[in-house]
Design a protein that fits this description.
Layout: H1 3-14, H2 17-43, H3 48-60, H4 64-74, H5 77-86, H6 93-111, H7 115-146, H8 156-218
Helix pairs in contact: 2-7, 2-8, 3-4, 3-8, 4-5, 5-6, 5-8, 6-8, 7-8
């Protein structure tokens, strides 16, 4: 038996029904991921305008601790990133900016979780369905070869050919179901992938509303440090309080 015949026998024995079951499992996993991601993104949003107004009030009063607590309670992406910057407020605007960039990288990883699965499924589900269709067509032509009419007399050969062609058409129609199912599985995965990518871009761009506000307060009066930031302990490091007038010491 040649290699082609061996592969053909394996495909014919396995059939194409397992492809449909496989696509069904992939579709269930895709649906679960879509629901989980939608709930997750909804929980990480928030009213940025209201948050910015509250944050502006805390920062203008120099209440950095309460501002951090308020941002952490919101559970929003923008709030988490702004809180990361405020935790390093005593180190200056540059350190806070680096901390917020690090927080953005961490949040991006959390936001993009499972999206690779949706993208891969959307790209490859039609090919999986096409594989099942190819298996079905191989079986159809194999059956056609076995049902080929001999050299009959009268209308026997024509009748046998008609029956064989009807069987082949029915098998091919069944085989095409796999391709249709593959496309059906891919469509929602692709749509969800594109929507979630736009949602991630919107969430990350919204972080600039709070992060720029934080940097604006920390950069205020660069020579004297950020206004309202807590002073260092025992005089170590730069002082962020009211500068001492020249000549007042000693």
């Amino acid at each position: 038996m040649s290699a082609v015949d061996a592969v053909k026998q394996i495909l014919l024995q396995s059939g194409s029904s397992w492809v449909l079951w496989f696509l069904g499992l992939l579709s269930l996993a895709s649906a679960a991921i879509i629901v989980e991601r939608w709930i997750f993104y909804r929980s990480r949003g928030g009213d940025l305008q209201a948050m910015a107004e509250r944050l502006d009030g805390y920062l203008s009063a120099g209440d950095f601790g309460t501002a951090i607590q308020e941002l952490q309670r919101s559970r929003s992406v923008a709030g988490t990133i702004a809180a990361a910057g405020l935790r390093l407020a005593d180190r200056g605007a540059a350190a806070a900016d680096k901390a917020m960039q690090s927080a953005v990288a961490l949040e991006r990883g959390r936001l993009e979780r499972w999206l690779a699965y949706l993208g891969t499924l959307g790209n490859n589900a039609p090919f999986i369905g096409l594989f099942g269709t190819v298996i079905g067509i191989i079986g159809a032509f194999e059956e056609l070869g076995h049902a080929a009419p001999g050299h009959g007399v009268g209308g026997t050969a024509a009748a046998a050919a008609q029956v064989a062609s009807q069987v082949v058409m029915a098998r091919i129609a069944e085989a095409l179901v796999a391709t249709a199912v593959g496309i059906l599985v891919a469509l929602p995965a692709v749509a969800a992938f594109n929507y979630f990518q736009r949602r991630i871009a919107s969430l990350l761009s919204g972080t600039e509303v709070l992060s720029n506000l934080v940097l604006a307060y920390l950069s205020e009066g660069a020579a004297g440090g950020p206004r309202g930031a807590p002073p260092p302990v025992d005089g170590a490091g730069p002082s962020f309080g009211v500068p001492t007038p020249a000549g007042s010491a000693g």
